[in-house]
Amino acid sequence: MKIISSSYVGPLHQLRTDALVVLIDNDTPLFTESKLDSMAKEVTKDVKDGILSSERVYSVPSGWKCGRVIFFCTSLQKNNASVEKIENTIAQSIAYCKSRGWLDVSILLNRDNENMPRFFDAAIMSQYSFVRYKSSSKKNTDKTLKINFIVEKKYSALLKERVEVVESVNLARNLVNEPANVADIDYMVNAAKKIAKDSKLKFTVLNKAELEKRGYNGLLTVGAGGHISPCMVTLEYIPAKPKNKDHICLLGKGIVFDSGGISIKPAADMWTMKGDMAGSAAVLCAMQAVVKRKPPVRISAIMCFAENLPDSKAARPGDIFTAANGKTVHVDNTDAEGRLVLSDGLFHAGKLGATHIADFATLTGACVVALGERIAGIMGNDDGWINKLLDASDATGERLWRLPLPQDYRTSLDTPVADINNVGGRWGGAINGGLFLQEFVPENTKWAHVDIAGPAFSQKKWGIYSEGATGFGVRLIYNLISN
Ligand SMILES: [Zn+2]
User: Fold this and answer.
1) CB under 8 Å to 142, separation ≥6 — which residues?
2) Active site residues
3) Using CB atoms within 10 A of its CB, is residue 120 exposed (0-12), middle (13-18) or buried (19+)?
4) How far is the CA of 95 from the centre of ligand 1 (A)?
């Protein structure tokens, strides 16, 4: 199904649409159209009396050109509805109309609201589904869903911007949802190359020989068992008039499939490991969205691609290699591979002259144990930089929670045979991952590590997200850089 978004600023009674969706809560202001106002008052009364719980469909007031008016309650509480509740109600209202064949839906968002970007996102993002391999989905391909937002005129440009951002979010979701037999290393490199070409960015790929020359042995070790060689891809954006000397490096983990390697994972849910490249998809697609705004700051995106498979050439537990920065690493567990590829990415960010690094990685199951499936962990070495990411998180609803990096925990990565072990003990696995990465952060560089193992992928539908990839990180990075 094709989706078109538009905005409408004319009088309501002249609007031609299948369904006019009106969201109300206890704080609903008077509507300028008296017909709508009297309907809204009736509905609000029923909401307060507990008669109405979710939605109410009205027939068309005489003289109006829309098919029907539907009220959706966003709150039965005294307090105003939360942003999440409004997002979910918007998603729910479109699904309601779609299921009845009303494919031209108009949503009244007549109030000034700082969260308008999130409401636009919710409407468009909630329509995403990954069904291209289902034969039954082919029947719907000629249909178009039109989502029309009735907003103040000043929001028209914002809607256009958000449509572009969501396109990038949904591209990230496609990359993650595609199975690893399709979205292999070559596929990811080509996706990055296409974005670089379309966005006029400098594109570099370091192939196996280049990685060997530079001593990027983390990537080489992890990718040794895959039939396609590992590589590192960089996209660079240099502004015409930079505001300062900052150089933001976005770094993404790109394990196109993580079997665990020789330390193989259990079979249950291993299929979700096709999404172990969600970090690289997020930084790639965020880069695509953000450079459209031509920000006055230098930005690079580094993606470390490898496939972690058991093979006669694969790395073994007990192997020791020397990382790019000269530290020796003991591979205790081949399933703790994300930190190994990122160690090269961090080193490379330093070579590019990064002043700020934000890495995005589906790094540890321990982070999911700590924070659940919907909140990412964030760690780092600079409060100011971390706080900027936390602010972007608040604005977008892509939730982060800060974890500490206590330096006395570093001893859990000690090993008698090398400078550092690639896993710690049983406890604090997300923190151990962060402490490992910290060893490879270039000097005098502000660094934040975002562990998205939980929110990158959801086996169940939740909120505005269909099951599968969420595109987590794209909107967060977009907000971080465009502000
Ligand atoms: Zn792993």
Assistant:
1) none
2) 265, 339
3) buried
4) 36
Task: Determine the distance separating the centroid of ligand 1 and the alpha carbon of 455, expressed in angstroms.
Answer: 16
pLDDT digits (tens, 9 = 90+) for 364-389: 999 999 999 999 999 999 999 999 99
User: What's residue 355's pLDDT?
Assistant: 98
- Which residue from 255, 212, 206 is spatially nearest to 231, judged by alpha carbons? 206
Question: What's the 333 CA to ligand 1 centre distance in angstroms?
Answer: 9
| Res 144 pLDDT > 60 | yes
Mean local confidence (pLDDT), 260-275 = 97
Label each residue of the chain as H, E or C: CEEEEEEECCCHHHCCCCEEEEEECCCCCCCCCHHHHHHHHHHHHHHHCCCCCCEEEECCCCCCCCCCEEEEECCCCCCCCCHHHHHHHHHHHHHHHHHCCCCEEEEECCCCCCCHHHHHHHHHHCCCCCCCCCHHHHHHCCCEEEEEEECCHHHHHHHHHHHHHHHHHHHHHHHHHCCCCCCCHHHHHHHHHHHHHHCCCEEEEECHHHHHHHCCHHHHHHHHHCCCCCEEEEEEECCCCCCCCCEEEEEEEEEEEECCCCCCCCCCCHHHHHHCCHHHHHHHHHHHHHHCCCCCCEEEEEEEEEEECCCCCCCCCCCEEECCCCCEEECCCCCCCHHHHHHHHHHHHHHHCCCEEEEEECCCHHHHHHHCCCCEEEEECCHHHHHHHHHHHHHHCCCEEECCCCHHHHHHHCECCECEECCCCCCCHHHHHHHHHHCCCCCCCEEEEEECCCCCEECCCECCECCEECCCCHHHHHHHHHC
pLDDT of 28 strictly over 70? no
- Mean pLDDT over 260-282 rounds to 98
Residue 55 has pLDDT above 90, yes or no: no
pLDDT for position 337: 98
- The pLDDT assigned to 95 comes to 94
| Orientation angle between helical segments 116-125 and 383-396, nearest 10 degrees | 60
**Lowest-confidence segment of 60-69, 171-180, 385-394 by average pLDDT:** 60-69
174 Cα to the center of ligand 1, angstroms: 21
Residue 79 in this model has a pLDDT that exceeds 60:
no
**Position of tokens 């459209």?**
292
Ligand 1 centroid distance, CA of 365 (Å): 9
- Cα dihedral 389, 394, 399, 403 sign: positive
Residue 76 near residue 43, CB atoms below 8 Å: no
More confident residue, 43 or 278: 278
181 CA from centroid of ligand 1 (Å): 18
